[in-house]
Every structure is written in structure tokens, then in C-alpha cells.
Design goal:
Chains A, B: Keywords: Glycosyltransferase, Ligase, Phosphoprotein, Pyridine nucleotide biosynthesis, Transferase. Two copies of one chain form a homodimer. By secondary structure, chain A is an alpha/beta fold. Helices cover about 45% and strands about 15% of the residues of chain A. Chain A is globular and about 85 Å long.
């Protein structure tokens, strides 16, 4: 048993539901394993109805790297204990990914129903990747998107993501802080995230540190003095936590005394200041600001924490809170108000034939066919609409390529269609090739620079209008199907409708 | 960079916040590293105000096993890139855990403010474990407790946990399904959970499987036929998903036809039946039950899924839903309605001196001292109250040991105190020793049998009164401080209060 607790990287590839393998068994026994399927990973809605921030493509492509570089021996170690169908076991031990993966990049801004990832591969390869891909993407997009909301609320005050203790397990803490950074957080506190992704971690001070020196005023003062004495210099931050006993009566006094005793003032080369983690943050922060200013500690920073989220931060701003940065834990780490992102992975084509799922729930009807996504910008450079086209033989796509006049058609309401004249818009293809015939492309390398993904996101965010970025009821962004895609979709729906009505 | 993406088990030990190490630097420079600190891991509240289910102790003790067995070379690989303080780096490379860990067992039922884990160790050892311990416990207790709520709502109908795709990353999927199992789920769907913990995984059928055969009635029928043909026998479950196109007009007809064509009926040795994943589950399930019964498929099971949680399941029961098992994803996998469990890790003693944190927020005041937890049962064997005592020199603990008459005192309201006469109650110590002087005890081995932890939970659940198990506003369970603990706590609070008032 002990040995089985130690999982290798390959376990990430098979972090999957049993039925993916049960069904692969049927495909294999029926000789269907060479059928080429296309699957889309997309989501149906966001918390606020607005944008989502893509994160996790890096780790998804990493799955392919791991799958294709894992030895048969290693694969057999796992599968021999899990797969009881002999033929399937041998097939899986030899399995490598030989298909294509298309995706938006990390840091991309995405909207509902757009394929974020499209996989085109022999059916078993594409099928067994469903659960691990969704497991990665749902966590990371949830966190990146929540980080985007929180950091937009706090802007221009920076947000520190520090919720590792509340994140859901190791991967969520380590990769989640990376996603939070891509989604706009200024920094994070996790040292494994720093190790794995090269994004520097930061931190302030904990209550338990202060309590290690005993109880009460003198003990707190000693803890501050020792901290400053040993940490000063080398641009080290000196942020003292002042609410262990009483913020105004004890903590802020001790902090000011400690800074003054140590000669720390506005000439200190690093950042210095205080953190408040309880009580009425608006009131306490302003009182502390006054006291710090009276002591001529004008550059002393105020860090605020304590269950903050985008709504509390907006309320604090309305009260003219005195703040230099916010630390946010739970709200981002588990995307607290919307923990379940709800991304799905749906089959849309088999051997060049489009397929559809016609659910009892209208929102669950999938868009068929092998597709890609374009973003159209208006003359001011603002994103105007996204267009989902078929990859092959799509007439709207051709118009786009030629910068011709194009009609953007609302799927449900004809009267909402609009026409964009050639020259009045520009476009960008959001779908990139990350894996081609099982070979990982150079696009993947770009994702390894996490700061680059964050910069990309921030730059794209500037191209979204203010109304579409607001946190409540953002102005709806158009995501349109091309004429050919809509035609294909409703042809399939009509076929099934007739079957339901008993007409065919 | 590539190398740093491949993390070894040791990364779990340092899945931590930067400040734990910054503060360790101060302790080391001040020569405080031999100070022995006691930290408690506990939580302040649950979603419903009632019980929580402990899970994750197994993985916490595993951290100690990994820390103490990792080579200095391996530790240096990480720390040399992360720790820039030379003395601290060398200290960490040599660090092993030499202290004690006390904890409730996995499967234990716990209440607010009770120490679930107590660590007594040299300060740096105890400090750097804070974040990784909370990261493990907050995820697993959240999921186990939510699984408990959902499976209590569904009882006696079994609940399958199958939310890996919505779980927050790899660890949350793999360890989370284990936690869901401990918390009462009958089974789960993740094959890595099966590999790692030996709990068999199960599954039914996906829409994409059906769509691989094309679009519409005939394609669905073919997919059912092929599934039955290739999977029948060996007790394999044959559960057909019937809502891809239309549950009543297409799916159930195809399912009945496929079963009958293949000669699958109530004599089939495994389970067989249908799954419905959309639409009005109450209505559709009853209609399908009628149709199955008319076809003499009385033992055909009905599995219901689609965003179910404890409340929807209760509503379905009220409507006399026809169901044999529920599949639950999001609600359990991310503990959707309460994703942030909020467990904390607080210092309570340093070198045998008790410490306290007196927050601006009353609920954040910690209970000082080195403590343990007892459960008292009434004459009917039902849990009556929990008592938190000091480990050393506690008079109530002594009364308990002698089965003497004991007064259970409410912390806030004297008039609520009750007296339990000797012979009228029995007691059990919930706190067990998992690590002593850095050595892992035999108690740890018991946690490796996950089914045993689940059985323990189910047995303990029977000892909780119906009123205390109900899902809304459960009858409050008494968690009392011993007289000596209360005295200690208020002595410390009074000392600080006087400082705040300027009296000392």
C-alpha cells in the first residue's frame, strides 16, 4: 500500500472517471479505436454573465508531454491494477497521444460557449483526457476569473493572493496561485508556486509569530522589535501585524514605537508598514493612517486582510479606506462565491460527421462540428464580438479572412443581427495550435513564461469596454455562430425533433 | 524550468506561505528554535451549525513520514532556490520533525472549537507545517462533511461521488473522493483514488459515448446494443444513459428494446438499468419506472444525476421519486454551498506558558493551553456533550477518569450548566497520539484502511441523536470547556483587557 501512495506525474494523466475506460473497452472491442473524434472544452456561463480568464492550458499540454514520455513499464504499473479488460490494458500501456490540440492561450479572455480547447484525436485518446482536462481547467479558470473580479474591484490597489490554507489540496494551492496571478493578482504567498513557476512569493507576519513571544503589550512589542532587527535591509518588507490584542490601543502604538526605536522611517529602502486582519477595516485603517502620519511615517503602508472579496473591497473604497494593498484568501483560493466553474467537454464530430446532444435542458445543447474562434474589434480597438466558425468551408470565416463586410447573426433573434462593413473592424484568431499529430508546438513554450500570460491578460483587458468589465450585470458581449455553423446545428436539431415527433 | 515542474512528494511538506519561513528566520537568529510550541487545528463553525466529519489525518501524518525520510540533497534542491537566508537554509536542509502530533481519527465526528489536531514541537517545525496541514484538512473536511449531509439526505438510497471534473485540481479529485467515501458516499468514480486508496471506482455511461455512434434514435440504439454486448457478464453494471436526445420518446424506448434484444432481464447477475441526467427528474423517473415495470424489467435500476445536492434530493424524495441511486458531482466535489471550510491553526502554548489571541472579532479568540477532547455519552449511548480539558492538572479530566459526577459548564451562560452524575454517563477520549518524539505510532496504520474510517464514521453517526443530525438548524451540541481551561482563558483575557484599559 505504501508504494501506491507515491504517485508519479503519470497519475495526472489518468485522474479520470471509470466510465472513460469502460467505454474505451467497448470502442476497442468494436474496432472503433481509429475513429477520429473532435471534442470541445467550453463553459456555459460565468458568475456575473461576463468574461472569464483562461488558465490551465499550460498544464493540459503538460499532460500530453507526460503521456507521451512515460515508459510502458510505468504505465503498466498503474493500469495493471486498474484495468481488468486484457485487450484494453495492452492498448493503454502502448497508448500515446497522436492527435491535435487547439486552444486559446493562458491569459485569454473567453466567453460562454466558445471552444477554449478543441481536441481532434482517435476516440480513446480524446476520451480518456476528458476528466483530467476538465479537472485542471475548471479549477484554474474559476480562480483566474475570480482573481480578475477581485483585482478589478481593487484597482489600482494591488491584490495579494494568499489563500493556500483554504485552497482545495496541494494542486489547487500551487497551481491556483499561479492562476490568480494570471488573472490579475499582483503577487501571491506560496513558495511551491514560486519554485514551480518562478513567480516570487511574498508574505507579512502571522499572529502565532507574535504570540511566540508571550501574551500582551510587551510581548507584542518584543516580537516587532525582533522582526525589524533581523529582517531589515536587503529590501525586505517590514509589515507588522497589529491586531493580535487590540489594534488601536496596543498594536498601532507598538508598531510606531518599534519603527521609531529602530530608526525605520520613510527613508527605508524596502516597504514597511502594518497589516490589520480583524475589526472594522475602514475605521481602523483610517485611524491608523492618521497615527502613522502624525508620527511622520507617511510611507508606512497599510495592508488589509480578513475575508475580503470584490464586494467588500468595493464597499471599503466607498468609505475612503486607507489602504496600500489587499490580501485576499478564501474568495480567490476557492473562488468562494462560485467554486464550481462548470466547464464541459463535449463531442462535436466523429470521422468528419458532426454530432450534437439535444438535452432536456436547452442550455445543455452543444454546438456541433470542428470549430474555431475569432475576436472582432471595432475602430477604437475595443472587442466588439466573437465569432465561432467551422474550421473548414465556412463562408463567414472567408469573409473575415478577406476583411469583407460580415453579418453577425444572433442565434435566437434574427432582428438582433448586425452588419460590420469591411474596413470597419479588425479580427484576431483566438484558437492556436498546441499539439499537431502528437507533437507539441512552439506555442507551448510561450505558456511557460507566466508573467507573459499575465501581461497578455492585462493588455487584452484594456480592449474590453468599461461596461463589459463592470462587476454586476456587465453589458452582454456578443458571441455569434457563423451562418454555416448555425445551419449545421439546426439541421441536426431538426432531424432529432422529427424523430421525437415520430415523423421519421 | 522543465525540471522544476516535476515535483516530488517533499513539495507537499513545503506547500506553504512565505511568512512561515520569514518568521522562522527570526526565531533562528534569536536562538528561539528550541522553544516548544503547541498549535491547535480546529474550526469555528460548520455550514449548518452541526457536525463535521474528520478526514485528512492520514495525509497529515504522511507529511511527517515524507519530511523525516527525505534526503538532505532533495531538501536542498528546493530550499536552495527558495530560502535566501543562509543560516535558515542549512537549518531547513537538516530539519526533521521531532515533536508530537495528537489528533482525532479520520471518520471522527467533530464540532466547532475542538482541537482536531494538536502539534507540540520545536517552534520552527510546528510553524512550517501550518499551511500544508490546513490545506489538507480544509479540503477534506469540507468534502467529507458535505458528503455526510448529502448521504444523510439520500438515506437509504446510496450516493455515488463523481465530481472529479469539477474538483479543484488533482489532489482535490483524488483525495476528495476518498473524503467523500469516508463521509458516507457509497462509492466514487475516480480511478486514481482507487489506485491510491484501494476503494473500488464505478461508472455508468457518458453522452459522448452514445454520440460516437452518430446522431439520433438509431445511433443511440446501436450504442446501447454494443455496450451490452461487450460489457455484459462478470457482474459488470449495465447502466444506459437515456437523455441524449429525448428521455421518454427515444431514450427509454431504446433502453428497453436493447435490454430485451440482448435478453437482459431481472435474472442478470450484475446491476442493470438507466441513468437520467437532465429534465424533471421526479417526473421522468416515475414515467421510466412505469415503462420498465411494464416491460417486466422490475430490477432495472434508476440512477439520477444532474446538479443534485442535499436539498434537491430531499425535494425528490418528497415527490416519491423512483430512484435506486444518486450520482452527485459539484455539490460534494467542491462542497459547492460551503467550499471554504475555514479550519485554523493557532498557537496556544509556548514553553509550557499558555498564550491567547484576543481578536477584534470575538469568534476569533482562541482557547489557550495544551488540550484534549472527550465525548460523553448518555445512558442510551447517545453523544451528550464534548468536553475540552487541559492535558495536565485538569480537575474535570480527573473526575471523568474516575467516572465521578461532573459539572458541564457553558462558557457564556452560567445558568446553562448541567451536572452529570457518576454512572449516568460514559466517556471516550477522541484525541489519539499519532506521532511521539518524531516517531509515527501504530494509530497511523489504522488510517490506511479507508473502509475502516468510513465504518467508524457510520457507527459514530448512529450515536448522534436524530435532532442533532437534521440538515437544517440541528439541535445544538454542547462543546464545553473544563473549569480549569475556562479559568485559564479568562485569566489571559483579563490581563490583556487591563492593558487595553491602561490599568497595567
Amino acid at each position: 500500500m505504501k508504494d501506491r501512495q507515491l504517485l508519479s506525474e503519470f497519475a495526472n494523466v489518468i485522474n479520470s472517471d471509470r466510465y472513460q475506460y469502460t467505454e474505451s473497452d467497448v470502442f476497442l472491442k468494436e474496432g472503433m479505436q481509429e475513429k477520429v473524434a473532435v471534442f470541445d472544452m467550453y463553459f456555459r456561463k460565468t458568475e456575473d454573465g461576463g468574461l472569464a480568464v483562461v488558465s490551465g492550458i499550460h498544464e493540459v499540454i503538460k499532460l500530453i508531454e507526460v503521456l507521451n514520455s512515460t515508459s510502458e513499464e510505468e504505465k503498466r504499473k498503474y493500469f495493471s491494477l486498474l484495468i481488468h479488460e486484457e485487450e484494453l490494458l495492452e492498448y493503454l500501456v502502448k497508448l500515446k497521444f497522436t492527435g491535435d490540440i487547439y486552444a486559446m492561450r493562458d491569459g485569454e479572455i473567453a466567453y460562454p460557449n466558445e471552444p477554449i480547447i478543441t481536441i481532434k484525436a482517435p476516440i480513446i485518446q480524446a476520451k480518456i483526457l476528458e476528466t483530467p482536462i476538465l479537472n485542471i481547467m475548471n479549477m484554474q479558470i474559476a480562480i483566474a476569473t475570480k482573481a480578475s473580479r477581485v483585482s478589478r474591484a481593487a484597482h489600482p490597489t494591488p491584490v495579494l493572493s494568499f489563500g493556500s490554507r483554504r485552497a482545495h489540496g496541494f494542486t489547487s494551492a500551487v497551481d491556483g496561485n499561479k492562476a490568480a496571478y494570471i488573472g490579475g493578482c499582483a503577487t501571491h504567498s506560496n513558495i511551491v508556486t514560486e519554485y514551480k513557476y518562478g513567480i516570487p512569493s511574498v508574505g507579512t507576519m502571522a499572529h502565532s509569530y507574535i504570540q511566540t513571544f508571550g501574551v500582551g503589550r510587551e510581548a507584542e512589542k518584543e516580537s516587532f522589535d525582533k522582526f525589524i532587527k533581523n529582517r531589515r535591509g536587503e529590501n525586505n518588507p517590514l509589515i507588522l501585524l497589529i491586531d493580535t490584542y487590540n489594534t488601536l490601543k496596543i498594536g498601532i502604538q507598538n508598531a510606531i514605537d518599534s519603527f521609531q526605536d529602530a530608526g525605520i522611517d520613510d527613508s527605508y529602502e524596502g516597504t514597511y508598514g502594518i497589516r490589520i486582519d480583524s475589526g472594522d477595516l475602514a475605521y481602523l485603517s483610517k485611524k491608523c493612517r492618521e497615527l502613522l502620519d502624525e508620527a511622520s511615517l507617511h510611507k508606512a503602508q497599510i495592508v488589509l486582510t480578513n475575508g475580503l472579496d470584490e464586494n467588500l473591497i468595493r464597499a471599503l473604497k466607498e468609505q475612503d479606506v486607507a489602504v496600500d494593498s489587499y490580501g485576499v484568501g478564501d474568495a480567490i483560493a476557492v473562488s468562494k462565491s462560485n467554486p464550481c466553474f462548470g466547464g464541459v467537454y463535449k463531442i462535436v464530430e466523429v470521422d468528419d460527421k458532426s454530432v450534437i446532444k439535444l438535452s432536456e435542458d436547452i442550455i445543455k445543447i452543444s454546438n456541433p462540428g470542428f470549430k474555431e474562434v475569432y475576436r472582432l474589434y471595432d475602430k477604437n480597438g475595443l472587442a466588439y464580438a466573437d465569432l465561432i466558425t467551422l474550421v473548414d468551408g465556412d463562408k463567414d470565416k472567408k469573409l473575415l479572412m478577406n476583411d469583407d463586410t460580415i453579418e453577425l447573426m444572433d442565434e435566437n433573434y434574427d432582428f438582433k443581427s448586425v452588419s460590420l462593413a469591411g474596413g470597419e473592424y479588425t479580427h484576431k484568431k483566438l484558437t492556436k495550435v498546441y499539439v499537431k499529430d502528437g507533437q507539441i508546438t512552439k506555442e507551448y513554450l510561450k505558456l511557460k513564461d507566466i508573467k507573459n500570460s499575465r501581461d497578455y491578460y492585462l493588455k487584452e483587458l484594456e480592449k474590453i469596454s468599461t461596461e463589459r468589465k463592470r462587476l454586476e450585470n456587465p453589458h452582454k458581449y456578443k458571441v455569434n455562430l457563423s451562418h454555416d455553423l448555425k445551419k449545421l446545428k439546426y439541421k441536426l436539431i431538426n432531424k432529432i425533433s422529427k424523430q421525437i415527433k415520430g415523423e421519421i
